[in-house]
Amino acid sequence: MTVCILTCPTALILWGVGASRDIAWIGLAFGMGMSAFTTGVVGIVSIGYTLDSYKELGGEIMITVMVIRNSLSFAIVSFLIDTRLD
Question: For labelling alongside 54, which of 6, 26, 29, 47 has CA 20 to 30 A away?
């Protein structure tokens, strides 16, 4: 988790500053790759910790995590598509 705390802001700064300054596509791809890696690792670690801590609530925890994750993914993609089409 400590690596993710350092990697995520670095990736988002690299992607944001790179996009605003028109750097090469490889810099943007690297920033997005670091961000995706961080998101995956944090999700796996937090779900694993929660399931180990609350064994009797495993099914409910997984359903809640899936609903929140899919809702946020839908909202973010919908927002990005709307802003890009304008």
Answer: 6
User: Tell me: the pLDDT tens digits for 5-26?
Assistant: 899 899 999 988 988 898 898 9
Q: What is the pLDDT of residue 79?
A: 80
Burial zone of 47 (CB within 10 Å; 0-12 exposed, 13-18 middle, 19+ buried): middle
**Mean pLDDT value across the chain:** 87
Return the ∠ at Cα 63 (arms to 58 and 66), rounded to 5°. Answer: 125
Tell me, yes or no, whether 10 and 37 share the same domain: yes
One domain for residues 30 and 10: yes
Three-class SS of residue 24? coil
Supply φ then ψ for residue 43, to 5 degrees: -65, -45
Q: How many domains does the chain have?
A: 2
The parent domain of residue 64 ranges over 57-86
